[in-house]
Write a structure and sequence with these properties.
Blueprint (H helix, E strand, L loop, with lengths): L11 E3 L5 E3 L3 H21 L6 H19 L4 H11 L3 H17 L13 H24 L7 H23 L8
Antiparallel strand pairs: 1-2
Helix pairs in contact: 1-2, 1-5, 2-3, 4-6, 5-6
Protein name: Corrinoid adenosyltransferase
Subcellular location: Cytoplasm
Organism: Gemmatimonas phototrophica
Amino acid sequence: MKIYTRSGDEGATALFGGGRVGKDHPRVDAYGDVDELNASLGMARSIQMIPRIDEVLVPVQRDLFAIGALLATPDLEKMRDHLTKARIDEQRIDELEKAIDACEQELEPLRSFIIPGGTPKAAALHVARTVCRRAERRVVHLASEVELPHLVVIYLNRLSDLLFMLARVANKRAGAGEVTW
């Protein structure tokens, strides 16, 4: 099988379960941003492997593949299948919250805004956080047009918080101070 199909040369793309939409369709924007987020996390993982941080990110990347598939699926029942197979549920949201709580145990409480940066690992996690926020906005926009499981928005919202905290932990573990605003 060749990687190119030429089927998108006119500006449309196929959806899971059938149908085609323009490549500028809100559904494509949403799953495209989730894909970019996944790639950003892959880049962050490739920079200075840090135990616990990278262990948290691999399952998140798997979750993002499932969320991307869900967003590319116009059929609501098939969407629910993707959520079930991927285990994107309240328990998974709780796991993200526990990871955030674990980070908080390691860090000083926030007293002001943090300027993104620090080590390359932390900076990459901050970039991933901003991509996550954009993906969240795109999913919220798509959800205003089509029915989507609300857990996707909750997941992305919680994930952006986790990425912020992981960036802070990466800086702390490397001995890099935080620059405040």
